[in-house]
Amino acid sequence: MSPPSLLSLAIDATLLNLHNISDLSFLPEHVLSDLFLRTLKAGKLTERILKIFIATEKEEVISMIQALNIQLVMTPVLPTSKLMSQVSIDKNEVDIVIAAFHSDLTSFLEEWRPIFSGFHLIVVQDPDLKEELKIPKGFDIDVYTKLDIDKLISSSNASMFSGYACRYFGYLVSKRKYIISIDDDCSPAKDNNGDVADIVIQHITNLKTPATPIFFNTLYDPYRKGSDFVRGYPFSLRSGVPCVLSCGLWLNLADYDAPTQSLKPELRNSRYVDAVLTVPKYSMMPMSGINIAFDRETVGPAIFPALKLAKEGKVRWETMEDIWCGLVVKVVCDHLQLGVKTGIPYVWRNERGSAIDSLKKEWEGVKLMEEVVPFFQTLKLSQDAVTAEACVTEMVVAIKKEKGRSHPELANAADNMVEWVKIWKEVQSRVLV
Q1: Which residues span the membrane (predicted)?
Q2: Cα–Cα distance between 378 and 392 in angstroms, integer?
């Protein structure tokens, strides 16, 4: 009887230590096939080990698994390439909401035509803009003006949709699952290869692939093509959680605050970083309402204009409603086991407003954040809060109790949150009929 080969001994040793192994993809296919058959013969093919074999994507092993009709009770961990192939975009699921601050949208829409063509657009005109909008032909588009806002919303609440906040009216009247939000001072960005970044495809891909807020993957989003989970990432967590909010970034005029932009007036963002990551659970973040996408059906009631400062103006440095909104929706996502992603897609942000002129108006918000962030970091919701509406309702009570007396503007924000939930329910009951 001939002695066993070194390969046979190596496979035997691997079989004895399978419980300590998390990755087999480095093995040649013929070795992997032999190991799989010996694992079957030894009765050691557990659910965890089967997942490891499937994750190698080796054709011969996959064929054996299929031929033997071996199936997992739970959904198997799918490699990135297979997850990406499952992402499809149904144009009937997407609304693109555009906040209009200029009367002539011709050049803006023509720039975006190759990307927006075929999608339904909702344009909400800033109520303070008096001129009639100029819109080129060839778009599936609904335009909403101050008259429409006044018809749908009571006069006491219509003021919450002024300035940048007009975009939220578009969220109210949408009937579709996903919303992509952008302002009319944004142009398509180009990636490092010089290709135009398709914000629709990239945002919807972010939303339709899972997020990983519980355990951070150091190679960014493992569900993107060309990436995967790193060594040591628990297989029990690799299915992730549903992603409901995608926060894109800006090239050119980045989202700096007025003090930073005033001190560094020439500072611009010229780096296109081709990456997406999940914001970790319990990490707060400042959200911009420009270039975001979200699952309207799941977190729409938590995305609203609530915080208004006494000296607040109409340009981005002077508004805080989206920053506050980002804190609220992140707490909701953490509580409901939902995910938030940030990174691509980028847009090119054009100049608007003066950071110097806005400095005094924004300063109150800058100071307020030092108190607001710790509050949201420690805010815990009850197990009874199982929807976004319920989460927002519980937050209102906590805000009024802990911050309302010392900060009237936060008490007012809490009142606006109550009104938003009420308006959301009323409007949705009408538009979805």
Answers
A1: none
A2: 15
- As a whole number of angstroms, the distance between CA 72 and CA 36 comes to 16
- The rounded Cα 267 to chain-centroid distance in angstroms is 26
Task: Kindly state the helix (H) or strand (E) to which residue 347 belongs, with its residue range.
Answer: strand 339-349
pLDDT digits (tens, 9 = 90+) for 1-56: 567 787 887 787 787 777 778 788 888 888 888 888 888 877 778 777 888 888 88
| Average of per-residue pLDDT across 413-420 | 93
Residue 424: HSE in the Cβ half-sphere, 13 Å Cα cutoff: 23
Q: Read off the tokens for 213.
A: 């807020």
Most confident of 27-41, 57-71, 92-106: 92-106
Concatenate the DSSP letters of all residues of 124-179 into one string: EE-TT--SPPB--SS-EEEEE-HHHHHHHS-HHHHGGGSGGGGHHHHHHH--SSEE
Q: How far apart are CA 38 and CA 399, in angstroms?
A: 61
| φ, ψ for residue 305, nearest 5 deg | -90, 115
- Give the separation between CA 183 and CA 149, rounded to whole angstroms: 18
pLDDT tens digits for range 155-193: 777 778 888 889 999 999 999 999 999 999 999 999 999
* Ranges for all domains in the chain classified under CATH 3.90.550: 81-432
- Cα separation of 277 and 247, whole Å? 10
**What tens digit of pLDDT does each residue of 362-387 get?**
667 778 888 899 999 999 999 999 99
Pairing of strands 140-144, 120-125: parallel
Distance CA 326, CA 349 (A): 20
Query: 106: which residues sit within 8 A by CB, 6+ positions away?
Result: 134, 135, 136
For the record, the structure tokens of 291 come out as: 């270039």
Beta bridge partners of 277: 342
Q: 242 vs 107, 213, 277, CA distance in Å?
A: 36, 10, 14
CB atoms within 10 A of CB 42: 12
Q: What is the DSSP string of 223-279?
A: TSTT--PPTT--GGGTT-B-EEEEEEEEEES-S--HHHHHH-TT--B------EEEP
Q: Which CATH architecture has domain 81-432?
A: Alpha-Beta Complex (3.90)
Q: What are phi and psi of 34, to 5 degrees?
A: -65, -40
- What's the pTM? 0.78
